[in-house]
Design brief:
three-stranded antiparallel β-sheet; alpha/beta; Rossmann fold
């Protein structure tokens, strides 16, 4: 799965990133959860590696609309969440070469209203296969039970079955886009916990 994602042409990855960001920005439930003045807390986003769907357009829009946005940051021992000041400055390269917040303006995972998470694969019922370190599962384990958990993926990353362990935290839905086509509705992508 990682090799297939890495082999995507840049134009296809850019189109998918734009489409997914558009879908996230148009999501009324997400906006209600994270945008001032009534939002319950910040969105947690990832800063993409070169092979991941890039959330920069969505993140920039949230910052312009006044949301506090947080992202994982390595503290020398584990990942924690830190406030993003912007996408043009205040960032540093983490141990895996991925950009992360440079300042340690730490936010507790239980304060996050919505999580936008990457993965190698997802199932339609919300199971997620990460990259093997368990970093997101540890952060998500400390999240509020009411926080939205949204995975983002290319269509080929949706699979019928994945192994599931006790510590795995499912996502509530997966926002995806078919390459070079309009994204399908994600209303049927709900975890077993969703109504």
């Amino acid at each position: 799965m990682a090799a297939r994602r890495k082999a995507l042409p840049d134009a296809e990855r850019e189109h998918a990133s734009e489409a997914v960001c558009r879908r996230l920005a148009d999501d009324d439930a997400l906006a209600a959860a994270v945008l001032p003045p009534r939002g319950r807390g910040p969105p947690a986003v990832y800063l993409a590696s070169p092979s991941e769907i890039d959330l920069s357009a969505f993140t920039a829009k949230m910052l312009r609309m006044g949301a506090t946005v947080v992202s994982p940051r390595w503290n020398g021992e584990t990942y924690e969440l830190a406030r993003l000041k912007g996408l043009a400055n205040g960032l540093r390269r983490g141990p895996m070469g991925i950009l992360e917040p440079g300042d340690a303006d730490i936010v507790d995972p239980s304060d996050v209203a919505a999580w936008i998470v990457p993965g190698l694969a997802f199932t339609p019922d919300g199971r997620r296969l990460g990259y093997g370190g368990g970093w997101y599962d540890r952060l998500l384990a400390s999240s509020s039970a009411t926080s939205l958990k949204i995975g983002v993926a290319h269509d080929f990353q949706i699979v019928g079955d994945l192994p599931c362990e006790a510590h795995d935290v499912p996502v509530d839905r997966v926002v995806r886009c078919r390459p070079l086509r309009r994204c399908p509705s994600t209303s049927s992508c709900r975890s077993p916990r969703a109504p």
